[in-house]
Amino acid sequence: MATIAAPPAALQPCEHARRPGGALRPPPRAWSGRRRCCQVIRATATSRGRPSATGSGQLESTALGASAGGEDGDVIRRLQNGPDVRGVALEGEKGRAVDLTPLAVEVIGESFGEWLRDQRPEGEDGEQLRVSVGRDPRLSGSRLSAVLFAGLAKAGCAVFDMGLATTPACFMSTILPRFSYDASIMMTASHLPYTRNGLKFFTKRGGLSSVEVEGICDRAARKYVARKMGLGGGGLGMPPVVMRVDLMSAYAQHLRDIIKERVAHPTHYDTPLEGFKVIVNAGNGCGGFFAWDVLEKLGADTTGSLHLEPDGMFPNHMPNPEDATAMSLTRGAVLARGADLGVVFDTDVDRSGVVDGAGAAINGDRLIALISAIVLAEHPGTTVVTDARAGDGLTRFIEARGGRHCLYRVGYRNVIDKGAQLNADGVETHVMMETTGHGALRENHFLDDGAYMVVKIIIEMVRMRLAGLEGGVGGLIRDLEEPAESVLLRMDIVGEPKSAKQRGVDAVEAFKKYIEEGKLSGWVLDDCGDCWVDEGCLVDNNDHPIDVDAYMYRAKFYDESQRPLGWVHIRQSVHNPNIALNLQSCVPGGCRSMAVDLFERFLLTSGVNEFVDTSEVQKFVK
């Protein structure tokens, strides 16, 4: 492996492991490979074991014809999950074969590189595109990264390997000075099991849309079929040379600088977190850097933090701020240490949740309320965009503080894109958050960054102490009204995987049709309020509507005395072949009453139960 002198951006080694007072700790093993700063390496692995001949991409295109529309091409298309690519990368899942194969990853990487080339402005054709790649600690990451590098190189891209990284850092690699790559790919499957993996795509303008990823997957499907037919290796035949870079140190410094500048501590500017105890639970994902490289370097005591070292098997619990075990363990650590705050990250750190000093979990609607309270104090009257699973109490919370609440389609990309669209239309919108913990702010490039959200909360926590305010950040949401009940049920779609998407659409559309035809008395399709959306969060009335990546509706239910019981949100999942039912009620027993009515008068009578497994609903109602 040959090494070369690195550019200035890569010359600063990571220092994850320095404790307060200067004592060094051994670095976590999975992070240590990045400490070589910047190296050029030759990726020797491709899905077929060798580079392809120049110009064979033309052979692929002419040879395929309609064949890419067959089953082999659909293997690639089914990997698309909204704006991401996700699949099974390792054996071990019952009933699921490996479909995110090295060949699939290679052709998707190559197709992304070609798509980037197609997007270039005229006059820039001669400049080589620079693409960074990061990954989470999953066991399949190293092997699949090698073929991803090869695919990008075949498309003529210069490849920069960030090693273990976070999804937000991948985007920031296109923004931060001294890096400023043309695009980035994060290899992760977020909170899904260790057997899964996937790809998230970024350019300087942000994450790709579902339609853009669909186009990339269509191109990749043609390549996949050609390779299966033995028709060449495709691409420009560029050698798979990769440069290793340390982006995470620069990203951590970026976060530290934000905290220092915005707190502007009057007595210790460089260590504004002195005297604070913060627990970080990284769930053995990528979030450990936040304890070592952000909090501790600002003076915080992170003793008692949990699962900081990356482990692709995720042996303790899934890294997920919605996971009950993750939140419970973090709560216990906060109370045991008398900490001021606990932080829970998902695997790739684009989501987060927190625990306040009293041990109260702050995720879901609570997290949206907390961020909204902070941002509304800074930007009075701003609009807050959330997905339509948010509760009515959150709407009242936002409006009581002078804000506006726009409920929109489920899907973090949908929520963020809606916020960007509203801003473009002159509607000041600073907060875009999903109830899952995905959150983006206008001040931070419309990027869903779990670490940045925690930075925002920490800054407020320090400011409150400096102002002599009691109660901590949890006190900011004390008046949030929460539903009496909230339930999530899932119905698996049975049959061939290739038919699952259309069957999901059929089931969701049947629910809407039943309401419109009066077959479900008491149910009313919900327009979700003043959000420029009608037909239950599906049809967009803007001049340039956002593309639909999954069908969904929300409907309110009234009992025989016209008393409102709550609502049901039904949607096809973009990640798995199932339909999700979110039920929320303002009265005890309301969710069961709605589920009984839905089960008896829709699922059993509409024919949906013939291709949807309703056993989880049936178990709940009984």
TrEMBL record:
Family: Belongs to the phosphohexose mutase family.
This enzyme's EC code(s): 5.4.2.2
Biased composition (Polar residues): 44-61
Organism name: Triticum aestivum
Region of interest: Disordered: 1-30, 43-74
Swiss-Prot/TrEMBL GO biological process terms: glucose metabolic process
Residue ranges of domain Alpha-D-phosphohexomutase alpha/beta/alpha in the record: 82-218, 251-359, 363-461
Signal peptide: none
Name recorded for this polypeptide: phosphoglucomutase (alpha-D-glucose-1,6-bisphosphate-dependent)
Cofactor section: Mg(2+)
